[in-house]
Amino acid sequence: MSLKILFTWWNKQTLGTFLKTLFFGTYVGKDVFGNKYYKNKKDERWVIYSKNVEATKISSEWYLWMHHTVDKIPDLKKEKQFNWQKEHLENQTGTKNRYKPIKIKKDSIQKKYETWK
Hints:
Blueprint: H1 3-7, H2 15-24, E1 26-30, E2 36-39, E3 45-48, H3 60-66
Antiparallel strand pairs: 1-2, 2-3
């Protein structure tokens, strides 16, 4: 374990989380991003991120489990329930994949009504 992991929270986990996981954590599962999920005897639940700490890396199934909405552990091999569902992506803000709305010129907008005179 490097010193970077021991003293910074943005690199996977802190020393306290490492010790809590080591002594009290029970491994529950892993998601498609490589994040590992744990719980203890008091049913406290936590995640150790695979790379940088980014809460939007948690898929909706694991989010529900983490917040005690469901008790069933999500299945990795679960297929999409509906054809309109997309794969989960982390927050894309600040990357080249960010959402950028199309700018509409004011002259190109056609009115659907006439204004009163």
